[in-house]
Amino acid sequence: MARTIAVNTNTYHGFTLDQALSGISAAGFKYVELCAVKGWTEHVMPYMGKDELSAVKRKLANLGLEPVALSGHCSVTDPERLPDFIENIKLAAFFGCRFIVTSIDEAHLKKEQKEKITSLVDILEELAGVCRQHDLVLALETHGKEYGSGESIFNLLKDVKVDNVKINFDTANVIMYGNKDPVEDLRVCKSKLGFIHLKDKLGPPEEWNFPALGAGYVDFPAIFDLVEDDVVMSIEIEFTSAGPKDLEEVNQAVKDSYDYLKSIGKI
């Protein structure tokens, strides 16, 4: 059965948004996850003027692309960054997204366990309230040493008393950061699942090597078998630490991913 599968424009890190959207559309995809990560991939940002953002909307419509999520990573444990994240929530709403994705910054999580969790839970519930005003789900990405597995975020969310904070399960991050088998980790956390980053993996766990879907060893058919058909997904390809050699390589990896998903009947 065909699913809602987007491509994260962070796949085109170092290239323009126009190049990203054109490549994603040309590959055959109909959905997109826009990247708004300050200092990294600033494809759409709150500081952009209304005219510029409206032009992006028109570009999306002209290409037949629907934005389903905004990758708006901020350090949600840093009080100075919370206003930035709230602006990203508003940006996600402007584009009609259903999800806003962020990871949990670990730099400020070195206090005692009880104080750390209590504070973080309060922050997440506050942000969830803002998200609810904009009909958004807050999706926490598996990333980093402490929250690099679905199980770790699942345990955190046991204390979060709202229903619009979910897990964004990154199929390769749980290998790299959590040293987990993604299929087994997903079994543990799937009741709190909200969104999935489909990302393949090559090399040992610690190696930065994320090729096109189907080119690595992540068992995507098993992943699909575990999740309901209505779970929204987004492809992220991050290549090696050297990055792609040119735009053509990125476009080919996106097309290869589309062809792989089509070959297994998921798109």
What's the order of the H and E elements?
A: EHEEHEHEHEHEHHEEHEEH
> In percent, how much strand structure appears in the residues?
15-25%
Spatial sequence of strands, sheet with the most strands: 1-2-4-5-6-7-8-10
Which topology does CATH recognise?
Answer: TIM Barrel
C-alpha termini separation: 7 Å
Task: Report mean pLDDT, rounded to a whole number.
Answer: 93
Name the CATH superfamily classification: Divalent-metal-dependent TIM barrel enzymes
**Domain count:** 1
| CATH architecture identity | Alpha-Beta Barrel
Helix run count: 9
User: Which ranges are low-confidence, i.e. pLDDT below 50, for 5 or more consecutive residues?
Assistant: 106-114
Your description of this structure?
With 267 residues, the protein is an alpha/beta fold. It has a single domain (5-263), classed as Alpha-Beta Barrel (TIM Barrel). It is built from nine helices and eleven strands. It is globular, with a radius of gyration of 17 Å.
Would you kindly provide a brief summary of this structure?
The protein is of the alpha/beta class and 267 residues long. It has helices at residues 17-27, 50-63, 82-94, 113-133, 150-157, 173-176, 182-189, 220-226, 247-263, and strands spanning 5-8, 31-37, 41-42, 66-71, 99-102, 137-141, 165-170, 193-198, 209-210, 232-235, 239-240. The chain has one domain (5-263): Divalent-metal-dependent TIM barrel enzymes (TIM Barrel, Alpha-Beta Barrel), CATH 3.20.20.150.
